[in-house]
């Protein structure tokens, strides 16, 4: 048996396949899902810039290693990049103006830099990454709209449960309303205030 590794699917091919499957023009669609391509997509490329009407773009479960600038996606609200090999958050300068949710769980992210342009971001899912330092979590306090985060499964939790970690996160990002799928209650806020 001779299994030859086929080369990666390009974004251009994935978009063509999506159009064929749905009978729609991708450039006109509000939601485009390029998840779980066979073979995987390894690189985001300029063909994604044709998705000018897109409000939700899903590229999860591929082999992407980096995020690129997408200056033409002026309507993008949700970017789903979970289950890839992304190591750094970059390329959000333009889409940061409209982006409301970034789903980036199950990647290789250690540092939470590159989120500053995301002035409308209210939801940030980054579970099961490589975040090891509390100062990285604190960077999200600069985001004016941030309300909901998911960080479970990062090394920073150590042996602690979600419940034990919630006040530690709220202390660093006081404006949060939801941490790891639990509402931030008054008791969590109180515990956060008592932490050194």
From TrEMBL:
Domain of life, per lineage: Eukaryota
Protein name: Dynein axonemal light chain 1
Family statement: Belongs to the dynein light chain LC1-type family.
The keyword Transmembrane helix is assigned to this record: no
Keyword Ion transport tagged: no
Gene3D superfamilies with a match to the protein in the record: Ribonuclease Inhibitor
Record InterPro entries: Leu-rich_rpt (IPR001611), LRR_dom_sf (IPR032675)
Record SUPFAM superfamilies: L domain-like (SSF52058)
A Pfam family the protein falls into: LRR_9
Subcellular location: Cytoplasm, Cytoskeleton, Cilium axoneme
Keywords recorded for this protein, A-Z: Cell projection, Cytoplasm, Cytoskeleton, Dynein, Leucine-rich repeat, Microtubule, Motor protein, Repeat
A cellular component term, taken from the record's GO annotations: dynein complex
């Amino acid at each position: 048996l001779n299994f030859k590794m086929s080369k990666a699917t390009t974004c251009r091919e994935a978009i063509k396949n999506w159009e064929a499957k749905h009978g729609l023009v991708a450039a006109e669609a509000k939601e485009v899902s390029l998840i779980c391509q066979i073979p995987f997509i390894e690189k985001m490329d300029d063909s994604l810039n044709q998705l000018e009407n897109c409000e939700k773009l899903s590229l999860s479960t591929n082999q992407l290693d980096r995020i690129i600038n997408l200056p033409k996606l002026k309507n993008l609200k949700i970017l789903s990049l979970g289950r890839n090999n992304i190591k750094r958050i970059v390329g959000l300068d333009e889409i940061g103006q409209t982006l409301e949710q970034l789903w980036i769980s199950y990647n290789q992210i250690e540092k939470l830099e590159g989120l500053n342009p995301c002035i409308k971001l209210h939801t940030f899912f980054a579970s099961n990454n490589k975040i090891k330092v509390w100062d990285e979590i604190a960077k999200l306090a600069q985001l004016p709209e941030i309300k909901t985060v998911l960080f479970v499964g990062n090394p920073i939790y150590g042996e602690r449960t979600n419940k034990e970690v919630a006040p530690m996160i709220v202390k660093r990002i006081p404006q949060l309303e939801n941490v790891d799928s639990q509402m931030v209650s008054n008791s969590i806020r109180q515990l956060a205030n008592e932490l050194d």
